[in-house]
Amino acid sequence: MRKSAIFLVVLLVLAACGGKSEETKKKKTDYKLSKINQLVGIARIEPESKICPIGSEIPGRVVSILVSEGEAVKKGQLIMLLDESSEQAQVQQSTSKMTTRQQRVKSLEAKIAAIGIKLNAADVERKRDRALANAKAGTEKAATDSETTYKNLEADLIIAKADLAEAVAGVNEINAESNYLSQLKNKKRVYAPEDGMMLNWDVKLGQAIAAGTKLGDFAPAGNLMAITEIDELYALKVKNGQKVSINLQGTTDKLSSGTVIYCAPYLSKKSIFSDRADNLEDRRVREVHVRVDNPNAVLIGSRVECIISL
To answer: Across all residues in the chain, what is the average pLDDT?
Structure first.
């Protein structure tokens, strides 16, 4: 009887353990991920047309910076001047050579005109002497001499025209040289590529720079955008047109509202905010651009939080 009681207790314990296991399994099966309504990403403020570097095509020395950092400029406005004294001297030398060549062209044109007058007179004379010689009223020698004079003047005219063509070619050559030197001189002047703002200068007055040197950063006029990155786990949840709250980083202070205007069609490695060298997590991200509704509320280059409503 006692053995039967012990056996009954053991069965009850086993049954109780089996029930807990099934209940635990049931709880795990019923577990569901909570629905996500918002995504938060750290973003950097940039012009919608992107920040572009201003550079110099040719080497030179900075003699004047005409625009301050943060100053708005118009397209084609002169913003920096390099030393152009050498190019200016070359342009003046070319101009002087041009004057000399043009005078030679005028001289040859006058010479051709004079030869033309003489040639017409010689033509009349040779025809008259030939008619007299044929009528036995003049000598054959006079007719021959008149013909020779006419042919010599004709040859002189051909030579003068060749000299004129050479002189005109010389003028064209000097003109091309002058245009080249003028363009070279103009390259010592740096102009704003379009309407916008000069963000910063990387050079100083008196500094000698090489060709291709970056002079500073320029922000084209237009809308501002916040560039953020969304983890690959939630990348497909972001769509164009979604509303965004742009907040001061680390706070709930709202700076501006915004709208998603671009979602990258591919995943890429973290690039914008990989500040730590030991960040070895192999995660992909999707780049997202958000247009800022109130550009005056943020600064270019600042970091903000983008809260995307899904």
So the answer is: 85
* Domains identified in the chain, total number: 3
Burial class for 129, CB neighbours closer than 10 Å (0-12, 13-18, 19+)? buried
Q: Is residue 79 domain-shared with residue 213, that is, in the same domain?
A: yes
Boundaries of domain holding 286: 38-49+221-309
pLDDT at 134: 86
Are the beta carbons of 292 and 226 closer than 8 angstroms? Answer: yes
Query: What are the tokens at 126?
Result: 């040779």
Beta-strand (E) ranges in the chain?
A: 38-47, 52-55, 60-65, 72-73, 78-82, 189-191, 196-201, 208-209, 214-220, 224-231, 243-248, 254-263, 268-269, 284-292, 303-309
Residue 129 has a pLDDT of 85
The strand ranges marked E within 13-128 are 38-47, 52-55, 60-65, 72-73, 78-82
Amino acid 206: pLDDT: 92
The reported pTM is 0.62
Cα gap 174→93, rounded to integer Å: 10
pLDDT in tens, 285-296: 999 999 999 988
